[in-house]
């Protein structure tokens, strides 16, 4: 899921020429991946909590 969110966020900027992920360093990738991973984990936790209450 995090990879899908990253693709959805990074592809438009790459297509517009704003950035080129092929030239990113490991630190650049990490700074892009971590927020998406955290977002995915929090979203999963929220959905799981709602399902437990239903």
Contiguous helical run count: 2
Indicate the percent of residues in helices. Answer: over 70%
Order of helices and strands: HH
The oligomeric state is single chain
Query: Kindly, what is the distance between the CA atoms of the first and last residues, rounded to a whole number of angstroms?
Result: 24 Å
Total E-strand runs: 0
Structural class: mainly alpha
Task: Enumerate the spans where pLDDT stays under 50 for 5 or more consecutive residues.
Answer: none
Report on the biggest sheet: none
Q: How confident is the prediction overall: mean pLDDT?
A: 90
Strand content: under 5%
Shape: elongated
- Rg over C-alpha atoms, rounded to the nearest angstrom: 14 Å
Describe the structure.
It contains two helices and no strands. It is an all-alpha fold. It has a domain of 31 residues. It starts with a helix and ends with a helix.
Short description:
This protein has helices at 2-15, 26-53. The chain is mainly alpha-helical and 54 residues long.
List keywords for this structure.
elongated, 54 residues, single chain, mainly alpha
Question: Which secondary structure elements does this structure contain, and how are they paired or packed?
Answer:
Elements: H1 2-15, H2 26-53
